[in-house]
Amino acid sequence: MSDAPSTRPSPTATTARSAHRKALGLAFAAAVGGFLFGFDSSVINGAVDAIEGQFSLSAAVTGFVVAVALLGCALGAWAGGRLADRWGRTRVMVLGAVLFFVSSILSAVAFSALDLAIWRFMAGVGIGIASVIAPAYIAEIAPAALRGRMGSLQQLAITVGIFAALLSDQVLATSAGGAAEELWLGWEAWRWMFLVCVVPAAVYGILALRMPESPRYLAAKGRDEEARSVLASVLGPDEDVDDRLGQIHRSIATDEKNAELGSLRGSALGLKPIVWVGILLSVFQQFVGINVIFYYSTTLWQAVGFDESQAFTVSTITSITNVVVTFIAIALVDKVGRRPMLLIGSAGMTVTLALMAIAFTQSTGSGENITLPGAWGVVALVSANLFVVFFGATWGPLVWVLLGEMFPNRIRAAALGVAAAMQWIANFAITMTFPPLLDAFGASIPYFMYAIFAALSFFFVLGKVQETKGKELEDMGEEAPRPAVA
């Protein structure tokens, strides 16, 4: 009989892995909301020219139909956080899925630009809800040691959704011989592009109906047995579930003892400083111009020398790059920490955006009809893709991680809703201002502006953002101390 020690894992280790797999599965399910976010933001791109021709729209009206969904997203994000505190996280997920499901069908059968804009706004409300609830829910069910990686799944799902939308648009347009051509049942391909959205919406709704409620919400509502059961299923045997539940209740009791702690109101321009940190993280994430790369990349690629027919291939490569580099964040966020990665991202984005701005000072032509001579085209192309790498590995996923975990329990959903609403408004502002800036000043000035915002984001993180790696949600303080310089 051998005296060699057994290599079979202990029952405790097996149970811990099972619990972590359960938490990971719930995080993946919640992140489907991020997939809807990414899918919706890109699906319109394949349909926009066909819609403009179908309804004989001016460029301004077309731009509004495209961008109005972002305003719906801002409303959905703002309302979603408050509804989540009243109804629970999973019920609000179902609401978001229903809104997106219905609006996808109505967008597909739209008969004018007006009703299409209404249904796009409705879709935006659903996406805004999903964008708030997913990071909040993931943060509240994830073990502290894995929370960063699980929170990064939101951004991974967004990038996969962008890629899936680009791919489905291309397949449908190619099958019909063009987005404006009839495909099946007498419907044009662009209508089928919207109808495809019902699939992820239905999946998200079904998953939400099967997911357990957040233990933090259950504890706040006095449903301790349910909260204890959920905590035990995701934390594993190494964690004292009763002690964790006690921590949650002490946090809630502290908030209730001082009513102001349960409010977003504070002395800093009417809001708590921690809420302003979340808002500025969201605004900086958009003001570095990431959506200009995705929404208006055709201008850059044509300036470098690609013809219009190659735009999809190049955009697809960029979207795949965005997906791949998100895995860098997933691998490093719980090891390196949030602040160091954000600082690296800010520095990298500043340099690459500045290089793009310099390259476009050498351009000839105006508006969208510009050309970059010689090596400057290569500089712009490489810089644009490196910018996507720096953003996708740091600010893209980590802002969502921080928004999900940085706020105290009592205000988490509401504060996240305000921050996410500002993110959508910032997205709208960048999307709407780039074309007139491009016409008036060329591409150099907008990219230089984004480089300035990237540089400012570095100093903002250095001075105002607190490291949250490894902390329990109940340890997130109201007033974050000024962090030491890294």
The helix-strand sequence is HHHHHEEHHHHHEHHHHHEEHHH
Domains, number? 2
Oligomer: single chain
End-to-end distance = 56 Å
Overall morphology:
globular
Low-confidence stretches: 478-486
Rounded to the nearest angstrom, the radius of gyration is: 23 Å
Helix content: over 70%
CATH superfamily heading of the largest domain: MFS general substrate transporter like domains
Major sheet strand order: 1-2
Count every beta strand, where a strand is a DSSP E run of 2 or more residues: 5
By CATH, the architecture of the largest domain is named Up-down Bundle
Descriptors:
486 residues; mainly alpha; Growth Hormone, Chain: A; 2 domains; two-stranded antiparallel ribbon; 18 helices; globular; disordered C terminus
Structure described in brief:
This protein is mainly alpha-helical and 486 residues long.
Give a verbal description of the structure:
The protein is mainly alpha-helical. The protein is 76% helix and 3% strand. A two-stranded antiparallel ribbon has the order 1-2. A two-stranded antiparallel sheet has the order 4-5. Strand 4 and strand 5 form a beta hairpin. The chain is globular and about 65 Å long. The C terminus is likely disordered.
